[in-house]
Amino acid sequence: MKLKVLTAGLVLATASQVFAEPVKLTNDKQKLSYSLGVMFAQRLKADFKYDDLDLNVMSAAMANVLKEEKTAIDEQEMIKIIQKAQRESYERAQKRMEKEAKENLAKEKAFLEKNAKADGIIKTDSGLQYKVITKGEGEKPKAESTVVVHYEGRTLDGNIFDSSYKRGEPATFGVNQVIPGWTEALQLMPQGSVWELYIPSELAYGPGGIPNKISPNSTLIFKVELKEIKQPEKVESAEKKEEPKKS
What we know:
Elements: H1 3-12, H2 28-44, H3 55-66, H4 75-115, E1 121-123, E2 129-134, E3 146-155, E4 160-163, H5 164-167, E5 171-174, H6 180-186, E6 194-199, E7 220-230
Antiparallel strand pairs: 1-2, 2-6, 3-4, 3-5, 3-7, 6-7
Helix pairs in contact: 1-2, 1-3
Domain PPIase FKBP-type: 144-230
GO biological process, one term: protein folding
Coiled coil: 83-115
């Protein structure tokens, strides 16, 4: 741990938080101070919450450091304090994730059992469920194929976490370069199809999820439109075979 960097982050993070009222930025000095405060506060958010910190004390520490005054705690003690706080924060986060993961599995079980009985739902041996919205007439991709798709992904609570539609252009990727639920579904879809996929967590991002985006053991729902299967280009060798020389 680089204490000087971390300490600077701790103290400068208070620049944008000490005052409850909106900060008025009228000159370059104020804008720089605010920008540094935001930057370091973003780093702090990974380990600490607002309620974990005393902003007045952080402001005093900032003054000590920037004025090159003696700090109230020596460097070795600071290291121990910060490391202890980070461990405790990590342990709390792990407990929250474990609780959330357990709850999500229960929600998943209930949802998939009910959804499997709905009209038009097809279930595969892996547990993947899907519904055909538009039936395509083209070929089906293979595991090594590259496809062009439009898609929208959401969680069970309806939160949209990713959408090529919002970006305004379809995505291109290899069939075997995505989560298992996608890899399986794409190989079943004829080109031109539009399906809705219901992907169990074990075929998605599992207990790890994606921090700040997809919680542990989340069941994912995707609308997928298979627009194109890209054919691999045939590369002909540029080297020409030489004819045997006559002796």
